[in-house]
């Protein structure tokens, strides 16, 4: 980068003032209009932090955040991507895949068709009696997988709904 040389500017008072011309000074940052309210608050916190001595304790006290929260947002902040201040999803990156075998799904479907009003606890007992080892926590989701099996119609316990 070439060296800056002083430029003389007169303000009409007869005095000469030297202004250094070089890299342009960045204008004060205004929050992007498409940022959420919380992201704008975080951006304001980071700007205040840098403008007031970069003291994390003082910034946390000023905004009412804990120090670990301020550290987290300072670490996450990317000056080129303001979206880095937006809330992130709490959803896990990788979910465990179901481990049902086709035989287990078929057995759960059959028992569910025979006893549509029974819950997963009773269905698990019936399946164990038939020799199918499946936990209660697997019976519920396996029973819900088959979209053709709807809940029984509302009405009396043994018959169709009155109507």
Verbal overview:
There is one protein chain. The protein is mainly α. The protein contains six helices and two strands. The chain has helices at 37-51, 56-63, 67-76, 102-114, 120-129, 136-145; strands at 6-10, 16-20. The protein has a two-stranded antiparallel ribbon. Helix 2 packs across helix 3. The longest helix is centred in the N-terminal third of the chain and has 15 residues, at 37-51. Mean pLDDT is 76; it is low at 6-11, 17-26 and 147-151.
Topology:
Layout lengths: L5 E5 L5 E5 L16 H15 L4 H8 L3 H10 L25 H13 L5 H10 L6 H10 L18
Helix pairs in contact: 2-3, 5-6
Name the helix and strand elements from N-terminus to C-terminus, one letter apiece.
EEHHHHHH
Give the overall form: rod-shaped
Q: Which radius of gyration do the C-alpha atoms yield?
A: 33 Å
What share of residues is helical? 40-55%
Coarse structural class:
mainly alpha
Task: Describe the structure concisely for a colleague.
The chain has 163 residues and is mainly α. The chain has helices at residues 37-51, 56-63, 67-76, 102-114, 120-129, 136-145, and strands at 6-10, 16-20. The radius of gyration is 33 Å and the shape is rod-shaped.
